[in-house]
Amino acid sequence: MKFMDHHIISMTSFSRDMIDHILETAEKMEPIALGKESSDLLKGKILAVLFFEPSTRTRMSFETAMLRLGGDILNLGSVDASSIAKGETLADTIRVIDGYADAMVLRHPKEGAAHLAAEFSSIPVLNAGDGAGHHPTQTLLDLYTIKRESHLEGLKIALAGDLKYGRTVHSLCYALSLYGADITLVSPKELRMPEEIISDLKNRGAKVTETDSIDDAINDMDVLYMTRIQKERFPDPAEYQKVANKLKITSDTLKDVKTGLKIMHPLPRVNEIKPEVDDTPHACYFKQAFYGVPVRMALLALVLGATE
Ligand code: NCD
Q: Which of 42, 86, 205, 282 sits between 20 and 30 A of 226, alpha carbons compared?
């Protein structure tokens, strides 16, 4: 399968075969991600890291992935300390970085930014989140987590929280539709999944149900994918306050769930999963954050042509 020089912008362009191939490659990378084996597969390669929005896991797991494979990273650093603060356009920044690195990973507050970057870049662009748009590399690690900790075939999954502004769930539901998942969308009515995504999912043959109550959905689920309310994307802070505390998982929520239920969250969490849940066998979110390393190793090795 040829991934070399591919941009990774949105899950809508991935086939199931492509995803399966990335997940299989990630599995082979796990011993290296754990530091049990060493590798110089990407020796001499440079990944440019451009984050125009805060990040902990996505940025650091990309950097770890590159370092574990013997490659180097070139970090733009704080936007305030770069020429962007002087008014440089994204297109110009991308054209310049194109000459400094072999691939670039970009997070930006504007939907469509990664797509635009790809138009000006001859090296692969990996979208690490574009506003409320997409977050495809998160989806790949989410699928990897589901595969390792639950099962992708015949999955019953609830996506809960901010389905309007949450880019992780936008990307994830497209990918889940390729696996015939039974998807329940759980959100306050103000934060429903955009209508065009729901109709895309239905056209792709997915089974989609909507509710505003976690309690109504959770007992039947294999996976509950919880998300943070995306405070920074609300045009009006008062609107955020209205929905801020509507969905919460406590130990009480878990009273009658399936033994094998896995609770995932892309993190950071604010208050939607109580710390008391962390010590239950259902909590899967910290493991999920680790899985970002082997999955991003696989992606980097594939787009840089170091593996097929
Ligand atoms: C997510 C994001 O940035 O979209 N975080 C992440 O990449 N793990 C989720 C969020 O910020 O709520």
A: 205
